[in-house]
Specification:
Layout lengths: L6 H15 L5 H8 L4 H18 L3 E5 L5 E5 L4 H4 L10 H13 L2 E2 H8 L3 H10 L3 E6 L2 E6 L1 H6 L6 H18 L5 H7 L2
Antiparallel strand pairs: 1-2, 3-5, 4-5
Helix pairs in contact: 1-2, 1-3, 5-7, 5-10
Length: about 190
């Protein structure tokens, strides 16, 4: 691929990559997308896009995640507004069930998660970490998982973990009397 010298073209390419990816992109991916072959120029382009996005849009943003990657996303406070318009959920049901299990049982070890959710949980954990919905601490050879502040903001949950658990338990009791088919995953999304 030919090196791009025009910063407007590089900015357009980064915008296209961030918009179409639907997932966080690392700086290396954005350097390739921009065609500049320069970390400095790519970072200038990203900063420019972030500044323009902040001033031009009210509900969408470009965010730098803790791992240094960038994501083009809806601001968390608007997630409940667009639910009926979204064509597909942000997370597959299996991953959402894993997230709700972590939210209810936290802190929870990777061993407990595998025992309960099966070996597919590793893919779920990777996806949830990329979205910054969970984090972990190493305790010996185990990883202990908790939800993050971003998780709470995204799902409109306010308060501490015990408040979250009480609200989930209250929803489970109400739901259990109506139907035994609802899952804990649907309860997390109903908390909004």
């Amino acid at each position: 691929m030919a090196k791009i010298e025009n910063l407007d073209e590089a900015i357009a390419r980064i915008e296209a990559a961030l918009y179409s990816a639907g997932r966080p992109l690392k700086i290396e991916e954005l350097i390739r997308a921009s065609g500049t072959e320069s970390r400095t120029k790519t970072q200038e382009c990203i900063d420019s896009i972030m500044k323009k996005t902040k001033s031009a849009f009210k509900a969408i943003e470009i965010v730098t995640l803790p791992d240094g990657s960038y994501v083009f996303q809806l601001k968390p406070e608007y997630s409940s507004t667009i639910k009926r318009y979204a064509s597909k959920p942000i997370l597959p049901n299996a991953t959402l069930k894993t997230l709700s299990y972590i939210a209810y049982m936290q802190p929870i070890s990777s061993k407990q998660l595998v025992e309960t959710r099966g070996s597919g949980v590793y893919a779920h954990l990777k996806e949830l970490k990329q979205l910054d919905f969970i984090n972990h601490q190493n305790v010996g050879r185990l990883k202990i998982y908790n939800t993050t502040e971003k998780f709470q903001k995204y799902f409109g949950i306010q308060g501490d973990v015990e408040n979250l658990k009480e609200r989930l338990f209250s929803k489970i009791r109400k739901t259990a009397t109506r139907s035994t088919t609802n899952t804990a995953a649907s309860l997390v999304t109903e908390l909004n």
